[in-house]
Each structure stands twice: as structure tokens, then as C-alpha cells.
Write a structure and sequence with these properties.
Layout lengths: L5 H8 L2 E2 L9 E6 L7 H11 L4 E3 L6 E2 L2 E2 L6 H17 L5 E4 L5 H13 L2 E6 L9 H7 L6 H10 L6 H5 L6 H7 L34
Parallel strand pairs: 2-6, 2-7, 3-6
Antiparallel strand pairs: 1-7, 4-5
Length: about 220
């Protein structure tokens, strides 16, 4: 496993694996969680430095054109499916750790990743940034790189599901399309400064991931 142990990775992440042991795991799936501006992407890059074999996958990557983030709300569902396919391929190829850098506000948003982790015998670790402002709406509004407005971040905070577990995610249910369209936290980015009317769909394959340059302290 490239020189690192299960115990070493868990200590470095400060995370907690909550699924029952079922023999030897084939790899690690790290599901990052947090509101915009909380430091998820900074944490992901820190993990990449500590574990060069890590693969960082974010749904935001789908909306990057020539290094510029341009959110297209009509393609949000496509973007999530695209990222899930990338994660599945990474697990099938034995990449580890696989790091999902999404807000993951609700348990059901993580369910596809947890199901593929179970199929591929990957251990699941849920991890939030350890930043003092991670639930401070005013500070998150100032820090988030996509300029998500304060009222949207407040709504995401209100909907944030705490203390998720492997089992709670597996047993979570996705809301109906109507319920999703009115309350889905990920749609918060549609109010950001870079939101544009969607052009004709292109099978983009972005190569530049978004960044969050804020430090942890």
C-alpha cells in the first residue's frame, strides 16, 4: 500500500471508519464534507502531499473551462454522475486513497460512493476540515472561492447532516426530483457570480481542479 498503514492513514486524517470489518480492505475512500469555504480543498491538497498516490475527484471539476469555474445548473446531475464514474474507475484500477472533494451535505449524496466502495472492498472515511470557521456563515461567505451568497450558505448549514455513518449513508434515500430542485444544497452555486446560462452540452473533460487558497489557521 505504498508504504503507509491503515492506522497511519486514519491518524493522519483524524477520521473514523464506521463500517464493520469484512476482511482485508483493498483501499481507502475518503469522503470530504463541509460548507463552501470551510477548507475542504485545502485539506484534499494536504492529503495529496502526504499521500502522493491519492486521487482527488470533485464534481466542481466538471464546470471548469480553461481554468475558469463556470457553473451550469442544468448540468448538475450530469456532473455528479460524471464524478461518480471517475470514482468507480479509480477504485476498479486500485487507486488509493480516493478522495471525494464535494460538500456532501446530505447522507444520500454520498450513497453512490459508499455503495461502490462496498463493492470494491474500500474502507470509507468521512472527514471534515478542522477549521474554526467551518460553520461560521459570515466567514464562509468571505472565504468561499465561488462567491456563494450568504443566504445560500445559511441554507446549506441548516440542512447539514451531522454524525453520518457508513450505515446511515447506505440506508439514506434520495428525495424526489421536485424536492431536490427546491432544497438541494449543491444548487447553491447557481447563485454564484460565475453562473451562466448553459451552452450546448459538451463532453468536457476538465484537467484543472478548482482551488481554495485559504490556510487552515
Amino acid at each position: 500500500m505504498d508504504g503507509w498503514t491503515d492506522e497511519g492513514l486514519l491518524r493522519a486524517l483524524g477520521g473514523l471508519s464506521l463500517q464493520p470489518p469484512r476482511g482485508r480492505f483493498g483501499g481507502k475512500l475518503v469522503l470530504l464534507r463541509g460548507l463552501p469555504g470551510s477548507g475542504k480543498s485545502t485539506l484534499a491538497r494536504q492529503l495529496k502531499r502526504d499521500y502522493p498516490s491519492a486521487v482527488i475527484l470533485s464534481t466542481d471539476d466538471f464546470f471548469i473551462e480553461n481554468g475558469v469555474y463556470v457553473f451550469e445548473p442544468d448540468f448538475l446531475e450530469d456532473a455528479h454522475k460524471w464524478n461518480q464514474k471517475r470514482a468507480y474507475k479509480a477504485m476498479k484500477n486500485g487507486k488509493s486513497p480516493v478522495i471525494i472533494d464535494n460538500t456532501n451535505i446530505h447522507a444520500w449524496e454520498m450513497k453512490p460512493y459508499v455503495m461502490m466502495a462496498r463493492e470494491n472492498r474500500y474502507e470509507v472515511i468521512f472527514q471534515e476540515p478542522d477549521t474554526p470557521w467551518k460553520f461560521n456563515v459570515r466567514e464562509l461567505t468571505r472565504r468561499n472561492t465561488h462567491r456563494v451568497p450568504r443566504q445560500k450558505i445559511q441554507r446549506m448549514k441548516d440542512q447539514y447532516e451531522h454524525n453520518v455513518t457508513f450505515h446511515s449513508v447506505l440506508h439514506s434515500e434520495e428525495p424526489s426530483r421536485d424536492e431536490r430542485s427546491s432544497s438541494r444544497p449543491s444548487a447553491a452555486y447557481s447563485m454564484g457570480a460565475h453562473s451562466n446560462p448553459p451552452p450546448a452540452f459538451s463532453n468536457r473533460r476538465p484537467h484543472v481542479a478548482r482551488t481554495n487558497n485559504r490556510p487552515f489557521n
